[in-house]
# Entry
Amino acid sequence: MCAQKSSCAATWRPYSPNWFRKFSMLDATNAHALVQRYHRLLEISRDLASTLDLDTLLQHIVQAAADVCEAEAASILLYDDRLQELYFQAATNLTEPLMRGLVVPMDSLAGWIVRNQQPVIINDVSKDQRHFAKISQNTNFLTHSLLGVPLVAKGKVVGALEAINKKGGEFTEEDRDVLSVLGAQAAIAIENSRLFQQSDLIAEFVHELRTPLGSIATSAHLLERPELSEDQRHILLRTIQNESRRLSELATSFLDLARLESGRVQYHVENVQVPALLDECATIMRTKALEKQQTLRVNIASTLPTLTVDRGKIKQVLINLLSNAIKYTPQGGHITLKAESVPQEVRISVQDTGRGIPPEGLENLFQKFYRVPGSEQMAQGTGLGLSICKKIVEGHGGRISVESEVGKGTTFTVHLPIGGR
# Structure
């Protein structure tokens, strides 16, 4: 059909007056069905306006795309204009950890949509050399037909929205028009979400810079005083070194979180043996525990299924949780790294015998830059570690839970789905 050809697509506009002429030619049944689809778009528009969380927003969009186009699946690819890269970010029934952050060639179908800012209808992708087959190979989900539209906000291309495998037939120009309207709404919502998250994160980051920068400036000023003893000078120099290290950690954590929140993190998934991963993490952190005369035990169930995860990122999560447990557990305390399986998931927990977290602290624990009152005296930190852990685990389709009792200790549990999301 004409929409399969790039030359024909160049004449298309999202809100073409031709749509109204087509509508007037429809019979009563088809006209009613079309009105229903656009009524659904109005409902979706209100839904998209209700959230500024990017991950939640993208899931709403792909589900809506599959719904209004009567497709088996839908996906969103986002475009990074700085790197000039296109990458998968969200999908309906595809395995996201295998896709999320996967860079797609710009000479693919999605790349053509982004470069030309035009829609395509391909009702047999096997006959189109632009089809990027790696997704089907990674997920065992076969793409037979595809409808894709550009996501453009304020003249800037944001990405591409695709509906995959039309149920019971072929994609039509009507499907294209409906998905294009959704794409126009989605692009604005995505851009608004990104701007909100960036401004929110930058404002918090700047606020957090003030304390270490203030300490460095004060120490440097005091070093100019000639009456200071050598011991006092060493103390001030250590303060400058510690606060400089804290600034470096803060910047690294900030960049990690910014990438996670913008969706620009690719998960390199593989089959991971849980016992080997836990033993490695315990070996790395055992020296830190011994410095405080703490015992670090590993308790692993006799049989555990293999996990399909990004090994490096899950290791990062466990190291962070173990590091926190060691920091906030007093001399001679006990820390346990445990793993067990239940139907549908593997649970990995880090349990300590530390001071515990009060109920009001639990409510805000995973918020960016949050520190439990009084914890600053026990250990330094950026207040971003748990936020990063939460994002990574959720990116694998899992979650983190926490239980704590003041004076007795805290247990963090990472819940990861068996076989990937």
